[in-house]
Amino acid sequence: MSEAVEVKTLIIDDREVSGRRGQTILEVARENDIHIPTLCHLDGLSEVGACRLCLVEIKGNSKLLPACIATISEGMEVSTHTERLQKHRRTILELLFAERNHICSVCVANGNCELQALGQSQGLTHVRLPYRNPDLHVDASHERFTVDHNRCILCTRCVRVCAEIEGAHVWDVMGRGINSLVITDLNDPWGDSSCTRCGKCVQVCPTGALFDKSKVGAEHPKHPDFLPYLNMMREAQ
Amino acid sequence: MTIEELEQIAKSVLQENAKCDYEVNVCMDLACASQGADLLREALVKATEASGKKVLVRRTGCMGPCSSGPLVRVDPEEILYRRVNAGHADAIVNSLGKEPVAGLQCDLSEHFDKQVRVVLENAGHIDPEKIDDYISRDGYKALLTALTEMTPNGVIHRITESGLRGRGGGGYPTGLKWGTVAKAGGDVKYVVCNGDEGDPGAFMDRSVMEGDPHRIIEGMTIAAYAVGASKGFIYVRAEYPVAVSRLTTALREARRRGLLGNNLCGTTFSFDVEIRLGAGAFVCGEETALIASIEGRRGTPKPRPPYPAVSGLWGKPTLINNVETYANIAPIVRNGGKWFFNMGSERSKGTKVFALTGKITNTGLVEVPMGIKLWEIIDVIGGGVPGGHKLKAIQTGGPSGGCIPADMMGLGVSYDALMAAGSIMGSGGMIVMDDTSCMVNVARFFIEFCMTESCGKCIPCRAGTAQMYTLLTRICEGTATMDDLSLLEDLCSTVKEASLCGLGQTAPNPVLSTLKYFRNEYMEHIEHKRCPAGVCNMKAHVEALA
Lengths: 237, 546
What we know:
The complex is a heterodimer.
Chain A: E1 7-12, E2 15-20, H1 25-31, E3 55-58, E4 61-66, E5 77-79, H2 83-99, H3 114-121, E6 138-139, E7 145-148, H4 157-166, E8 171-174, E9 181-184, H5 200-204, E10 210-212, H6 226-236
Parallel strand pairs in A: 1-5
Antiparallel strand pairs in A: 1-2, 3-4, 3-5, 6-7, 7-10, 8-9
Chain B: H1 3-18, E1 22-27, H2 30-33, H3 37-51, E2 55-60, E3 72-75, E4 79-81, H4 89-95, H5 109-113, H6 131-136, H7 141-149, H8 152-162, H9 174-183, E5 190-195, H10 204-211, H11 213-227, E6 231-237, H12 241-256, E7 272-278, H13 287-294, E8 318-322, H14 323-335, H15 337-341, E9 351-358, E10 364-369, H16 374-381, E11 391-396, E12 402-405, H17 415-420, E13 429-434, H18 439-453, H19 459-477, H20 482-498, H21 502-506, H22 509-517, H23 519-527, H24 539-545
Parallel strand pairs in B: 1-2, 5-6, 5-8, 6-7, 9-13
Antiparallel strand pairs in B: 1-3, 3-4, 9-10, 11-12, 11-13
Helix pairs in contact in B: 3-4, 7-11, 7-14, 8-9, 8-11, 10-11, 10-12, 11-14, 18-19, 19-20
């Protein structure tokens, strides 16, 4: 006998939708073709709620909640594209563009970059904030891949995919605040680390921070879509 | 341990003390210790031995007016001496039974009269390393009463009835929190004490941990009984070595007396406490980051819900309260909820400990009833602003709080009133500023603090505080434009609303509150390249002109 599935009905952007108990707002929205922008979220990885782009307004709650983590409840009224949310989303993207050195014209991910695509879809025409232009290094010690910290947005997808899917936990975060950096092992060069060379981190990286040395420019689309399938097959085993 | 045994211990301590004609209490808290209270105490012991008088020389926790230290109080006459050094020891001992030493005695009756001491009731009266001293002042009586006469629900009811709200800053009703953890399912639950006091200028929790550690252990044990936990953690920052050592001693003594461990007082209830050290990250005072740190992971916060009351340490229901909250528990259980409820203002009950610092005559620790007017704290208890300067503002709540201008000193201290004024109660830091402080510079200081203490997990806090710091630096250097100011206000709103945890959500408060009350100072900096208080160096602006 299968367990009874509890169905909840709610309203997202004036549309009546339904979902199973325990589903997140983001899952239900995507099932119903309601687009909520995300950056740190990736199907198949655990949620961290760090990029704050998927924040939504919930009627009766003065706080904004991340759609990737907040679960649905009966009768909930969710708004995903109010003026307030759009303003915060643009400011967050500006903060990201000004934080490090995102220069699309010389980036391997130009045209295949999630940050670039979000800037375009959110109507970001310019950045009002002063660019910080930090002096960050590029680690090309690995035989196949390179990490360019200037393009990293600290979404920690690489950290999560390495620990949760590959099981190697080579990547982690060092330092705090504006000085945070993703590192391999205990801040060893990537080439000398315990990396298994599986390349999953490169595939899930939303920007050009992690890239394959053998490919350039338009040849560099990334394929993070293998994750949900991989997870499903593992669970089936 | 039974109540009778407890009373027997208390009686024997009092009998022992009664053998002495005088008690000389020496404050050994950090401020006094750093000015030679150790040497003073040794000198006093030597002097009493030489004189042949029956005198008990006792080291105690913080007496309060730290700027007057080292402090010595002679009982039973209650004569307070200030700025005492080892050289004064003979004079003090000789004066016992005669006239007090001239020139050393100080009259701080105004300072003490307005205060109501609940949390600090033992401060200055007991030796923090002696459990029997604590027991002699009704210590552990509340715990035994709770264990032998009350049900867990009865304890929670009493806390709810008292109206106690969390003293860590948020002001969440303590009884409600306990009730939630008690109702949460599962056999394993935890009780955590948040002693990660990191606000600049705040030292309330340190003083309680150092001066009266058993009070915290008793509060935690009562909490554990009420919610059904068997394991507790005290999270203390490693920068408080004295607090750590006092707590370690206190835990050992409590176990030895059978007040911690298995089957307390012959009941089925068992409880023990471990100390965990923080490495000094401000964000680890945030409860989800604190939990991560105790678990041995990187101290970064997680989105709530789920709240720790449902899923906390290792995914189990966890009760997290601040040091001062636990310090209030024993008196409430002992004296009843009504007693506590009758103190304070309409929606904020009891007392609050403040660490009074900055441009004020009596720097130190004060405990005041809720609802007291700010001017009473500043002018009466604090003794006013020294040096003929004028009060400009007070800052409460540390980097999460805001500045309240001098013309609002009629405000009563409560969670809601401070919140409405754009600040917060916070954990109890109160920094007094006079006309020599530049409010833009003050805002920049706090934003710099938040920038360096941000964990870096979410973007609004990580990059937003850094950008705010850049813009505030421009204003302070005289190179900012009006566009920079509107950008700053935009950033405040995004960092406040979009950040993941409380650190980021409250980081803009110092900027927002100074913009609200001291906008003219910002305008002076931007439009006339002038710092009204004469603090900011406009060199960058001058160089740009040249």
